Amino acid sequence: MRDQADSPVPQAAVTPSPGPAAGRVLLQLRGLCKRFGGVQAVRDLDLDVTEGEIFGLLGPNGSGKTTVFNLVAGVLPADSGHIWFGGTLLDRLPPHRRAALGVARTFQLVRSLPRLSVADNVAAARLYGAAPAGSVDAARREALQLLEWVGLRAKAELPAGALNLAERRRLEVARALATRPRLLLLDEPFAGLNVDEVEAEVALFRRLRGEGLTLVLVEHNVPALRGLCDRVAFLNSGEKVAEGRPEDVLSHPRVVEVYLGKGGA
User: pTM of the predicted model, to two decimals?
Assistant: First the structure.
């Protein structure tokens, strides 16, 4: 990412430590498993996400995609397996420690604080994560810069509850960016948006990648993922069925059978 003075997206002040992953791999999952009672939500998952790429997770509802996000963010503990981020083993770290290393996420259901102003929602997030702001005033100044960058500066003083869905999703992104992430996990960021709004979000995510961020998306919007992602992985019943370029994964026989159908293929 460019120097903070040149970029509206604050740079994470974390240097990756040496770890088992070679090259430019930022996120590495090995043998990851999670069970809920009799349901195996994630089964023996291996995954590498390269620094600076846009990676997509595809699969039917209940295939384990959001569970993977929860495991990476530390919301849930894994039953077995390991997670490395920038060479640091995350297995025993709580969510706030992972955020301080540069892991941020958004949610399927927008989780803004509706009675606070849009700016204060972002400022609150800026007080946490990597290299938190030194004061509330500094956090609010940076919040306004981020809102300008995501197209919400004009709504800064409105209560967050007054925003429409597309704007609330952008606020989610601004709040995540306020923690100075290196990795941004986006959980169904296009859900409920119209075609024009999806195109605007795709353009935003490409700009974020241009600033050096690594993005992982869980999404059902196949055309958007096809045009946005460098690579995708398809999960079904917690297992990885296919991984690679979007066009290769989307033409995989098993993916066509369980997800797209002949018409979708």
Answer: 0.88
